[in-house]
Amino acid sequence: MASSAKYRNVQANPRVAFAVDEVVEETMQGARFLEVRGLAETATHEPADGHLAPATIRIHPRRVIAYNVDPADPGLHTRAIAAAPAGTPTSG
Fold first, then answer.
1. Domain limits of the chain?
2. Quick one: which of 2, 47, 77, 85 has the fewest CB in 10 Å?
3. CA distances (Å), 83 to each of 13, 54, 88, in order?
């Protein structure tokens, strides 16, 4: 991961978006997606049982956009997430 272009890109510009989508039917009701926009940082840590790379990219979300993700509440949903004050520890 540390030698990848995306890792270097995050170091140059931390503004990122991560999107996942799926189409299960050929109608809008069969489409769903989730997009997370935010600020990313590169991080290194000790590998856990050899399953994770020591270099990772962590995204601190600032906006989440979802469409048809929750079957109980379909449709478009957006959420803005305020940045934590400087010096505030983050979970994760």
1. 5-80
2. 85
3. 17, 26, 10
